[in-house]
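yo, MrfA-like Zn-binding domain-containing protein is done. seq:
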Amino acid sequence: MTAGPLAESRFSYDATNAVDPLGDAEKEASKGTKYNRAKVGSGRPSSLLYTYGPGSVMDLPQFTIMPCGLDEWDRIWRRRDSVPEIHAPRLRDAVRKLLRSRDVQLRPFPRRSKKISISTEGDDLGVPARVFPQWLRCSGCDMLGSLAQFGYTNTHPYRPDLACFEHVRCTGRKGGSRKAIRRPAVPARYLLACVKGHLDEFPYDLWVHRGTRCTEAEFPTLKMIDRTAGKGASAVIQCESCGQRRGMNEAQGEAGRSKLPKCRGRHPHLDAFEPGGCGNDTRLMLIGASNLWFPATQSVIVMPESPEEKASDIAYRIRIALGEKLEQYQNDLAKLRGFLAAKDVDVDALSDAELAAAVAEAQQPDASPEQYEQWVRDWDPVDLLVPEWRYLQRDPLGDHQEDEASGLVLSRRDLGAELPKPITRVLAVEALRKVNALIGFTRIDDMDRVGDLKSRLVPLSRNPRPQWTVATEDRGEGIFLQLDEDAVTAWESRVQEHPLWAAHRAAHKRNFMRRFSETAEDADPDTRLRPPRYWLIHTLAHVLIRELALTCGYNAASLSERLYGWREAEGRPASAGLLICTTASDSDGTLGGLVQQSDPDRLERVVTFALRRATRCPSDPICAMRTPQDPEDFLHGAACHCCVMASETSCERANRFLDRRFLVDLPGSDVGFFGRID
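structure:
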């Protein structure tokens, strides 16, 4: 399926400027001349989801690019007869509601592995991107100009890393060689961003002339003089036509913001502008800044489907397969079965009554915009975890219990005699499938730091009701540990009355009021604070990851956590458990080194050593006594990179909500769940 008609677009967009790199390359090839190839680089699916997705700025060896929005990806998919879809009904249902669009497919990145490096299969697939920023600086003479002022070369079929822009007739800097030669050009690294996720080129011409035009030339010659690269906004912009100069350091900080223009509402990944503009203040941004792009993602561990989920999935597939023809075939089930079989929708296992019920569900009208908005307001990300927790409460029927549809393989493990008693269940997750979907992104602050403001979430498509989004599918293994609920409840009641928890709660409120200023009046800070059991489980997961990295064969950055730590509420039972897993995007997944650590004797040693190490830190006693006091607003206690904190690939909370004192008793503290560790 392709995106909806441009008439439905919510943005101002010029269709004549569409990005079509493969089409452009084919036009060049048809002329029979040596042409610049479409491929300029590559990236792993995981990096394209979490680091360099649509709207981000991706570094290539010679220049930078921005992956386009999903509308441009449709031109790539149209080169194939069919479009693959990742099967994850539970995640798809959440994504469709978050995107407010009824039938949202989860599609992988448009790629195909090559059998050998010089083969051509998959050459017609790839992620479309545009050069961004489109201001470049000559490395030989400091000339600052747009793309049109530089030559582009990308002719080697197997070396896209050689693709580059060059100043064709560079005469060097004053005092150097005056012979005109080709010199490489590099991106001019300054951008403008606003809190609503807009991004724009820096207006160098207006900046150096202080908001006016050059008095000596209609198209002035600019230079970016930068001799201290890597030291912030240190460059100086100089107009060679009139002689004016202005430093980029004037645009930094609070004082600099008043000198910058208002936001124009530009979304370069969509090649579009907000209708009526934006008008927010802008701030200076560097192309390599870590806060330039924050993905908003949702993920699930695919579990065996419940009867309700199966029925909903069948209705979805029938609606997608038949479309407008559904009404035509609804009363002729025999023809309907044949038509669905031709569309690879298997309904042979359904009786006529079940098929009729599925057809009736498929014909249900879409939710109203008001219903979507209400659902999003009430939605909690924990809702995606509840079905996983419920299924993991079931004991496997035997070793290596496999569900073919989900790919989940579970085995029950006995508890070692020396394993801490509060750990009541251990499961070896010998195979799992994790699906991750991208629903948008933010700039300047990540999604959970901006109060989930809808206006801050930048869409991936110009279509207000997108019909698909990009997703990845990873396979791997893991270990599931469950804590005794009664022990956790009793401990949590004790901690909530402790001064340490009062200090964390007060620090979180200060943090919330400072970082969530636009929504602070509408939300209670305590609703965003994770309960004590979450801090406990989170800290336990981190110390286990650090210990497992020493024994399982995977480094700590390859291990990740999935935390189940919430109190009982309407529609969901209380949970206290964690899943440590490792996943890979290839078809084979991982090799079993982590699952081996679930053996009773090995796990007993891992847990014992992890808790023992948690009692000491090279930064003690400073780390062990760290408690936020007014005006401090950090969201961790006795935790640092020497003892508990993990890499950002491992932690789902960016190393927030951690405190060793909730895990074990430290000197001067007696609230450790596991007590004193000798």
